[in-house]
């Protein structure tokens, strides 16, 4: 344990700019993190002045605002190391235009492939890609956690086949399914971004640089325009799962402001499959391609392995007229599928 250093606004700013997280600053200065947060609150004006920060409510990336925001605790995830978006600079949500003038569109929906986990289901993932292609799908949307990460939860090292960022990136570049004509559009999740939290590179950005068929949309979430009057929201959230599979999905749909709702909402993270239609929003949990780990067993979570093909029919003005849902489930997990 290092010697305790007198905490001043200048010292806080100096450490934060080098370390990039409140937890790291607290460890460096040997102070309690809660006391650090109170100190920043008391010295808000001086820190503002020293940093020359502009009071702009839309600037969610200023260091002061990151330090001021309280961190939420979730008892369901008390043993899992969280990726807190406030602990490093997170880009604004991406808004991309993949719109089509066609009256019919087929897309694939997947999540939580967790490559480099001993429980990965790579054979089934490749099978889903082939089946999706045969069904006419040319774009597959991935709702986060492409790779397994390292030390996301206690004991994870026992569940891995690759143990560093470089090894996991190389494995994904080489082994992630590649089908000519199919593009994977992916956001990153908490397992992917554990390396960013530890001051590494963004692994999905690195993967996409070496795989032209993988299009990285950004961290945690993205908005995708599918047609003139049809948008889709991809999200990899935080927090533990609820008793009812639909609960988190329904809460997300309820949270959208009127006039700003997507037409499709896709969530990863929970390793479950669900479809609900609320407030004219079609909501999906993306299931996963990872069998049950010891960690999930301790959490009493039985993952659902598989992916979804959506067959969307549009009206002349580009809104959803009809949507067909074809979920491909793989009931018997494969062992040592790596």
Please give the count of helices: 11
Order of helices and strands: HHHHHEEHEHEHHEEEHEEEHEE
How many extended strands?
A: 12
Approximate shape? globular
Give an overview of the whole structure.
The structure is a single chain. With 338 residues, the protein is an alpha/beta fold. It is 28% helix and 22% strand. It is built from eleven helices and twelve strands. The protein has helices spanning 9-19, 22-29, 33-42, 44-51, 63-68, 122-134, 165-175, 194-197, 203-210, 247-255, 294-298, and strands at 94-97, 104-110, 139-142, 183-188, 214-219, 221-227, 230-235, 264-267, 273-278, 281-286, 306-314, 320-329. The strands form two sheets. It has a six-stranded mixed beta sheet with strand order 1-6-7-8-10-9, with helices on one face. The chain has a six-stranded mixed beta sheet with strand order 5-4-3-2-11-12, covered by helices on one side. Helix 6 links the parallel strand 2 and strand 3. Helix 1 (9-19) packs across helix 2 and helix 7 (165-175) packs parallel to helix 9 (203-210). The longest helix is centred in the middle third of the chain and has 13 residues, at 122-134. It is globular and about 65 Å long. The two termini are 41 Å apart.
């Amino acid at each position: 344990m290092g010697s305790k250093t007198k905490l001043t606004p200048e010292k806080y700013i100096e450490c934060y700019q080098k370390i990039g997280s409140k937890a790291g600053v607290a460890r460096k200065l040997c102070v309690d993190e809660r006391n650090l947060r109170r100190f920043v609150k008391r010295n808000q004006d001086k820190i503002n002045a020293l940093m020359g920060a502009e009071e702009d409510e839309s600037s969610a990336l200023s260091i002061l605002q990151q330090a001021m925001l309280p961190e939420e605790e979730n008892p369901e995830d008390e043993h899992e190391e969280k990726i807190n978006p406030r602990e490093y600079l997170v880009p604004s949500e991406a808004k991309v235009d993949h719109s089509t003038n066609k009256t019919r569109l087929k897309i694939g929906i997947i999540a939580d492939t967790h490559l480099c986990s001993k429980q990965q289901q790579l054979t089934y993932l490749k099978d889903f890609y082939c089946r999706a292609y045969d069904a006419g799908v040319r774009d597959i949307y991935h709702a986060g956690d492409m790779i397994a990460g390292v030390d996301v939860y206690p004991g994870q090292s026992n569940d891995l086949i690759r143990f560093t960022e470089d090894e996991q990136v190389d494995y994904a570049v080489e082994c992630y399914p590649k089908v000519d004509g199919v593009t994977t559009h992916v956001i990153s999740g908490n397992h992917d971004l554990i390396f960013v939290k530890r001051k590494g590179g963004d692994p999905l950005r690195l993967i996409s640089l070496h795989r032209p068929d993988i299009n990285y949309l950004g961290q945690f979430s993205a908005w995708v325009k599918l047609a003139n009057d049809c948008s889709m929201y991809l999200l990899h959230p935080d927090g533990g799962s609820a008793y009812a599979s639909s609960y988190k999905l329904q809460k997300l749909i309820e949270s959208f402001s009127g006039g700003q709702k997507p037409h499709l909402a896709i969530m990863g993270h929970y390793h479950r499959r669900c479809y609900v239609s609320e407030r004219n929003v079609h909501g999906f949990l993306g299931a996963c391609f990872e069998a049950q780990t010891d960690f999930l067993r301790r959490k009493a979570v039985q993952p659902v392995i598989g992916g979804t093909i959506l067959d969307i029919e549009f009206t002349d003005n580009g809104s959803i007229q009809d949507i067909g849902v074809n979920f491909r489930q793989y009931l018997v997990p494969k062992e040592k599928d790596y």
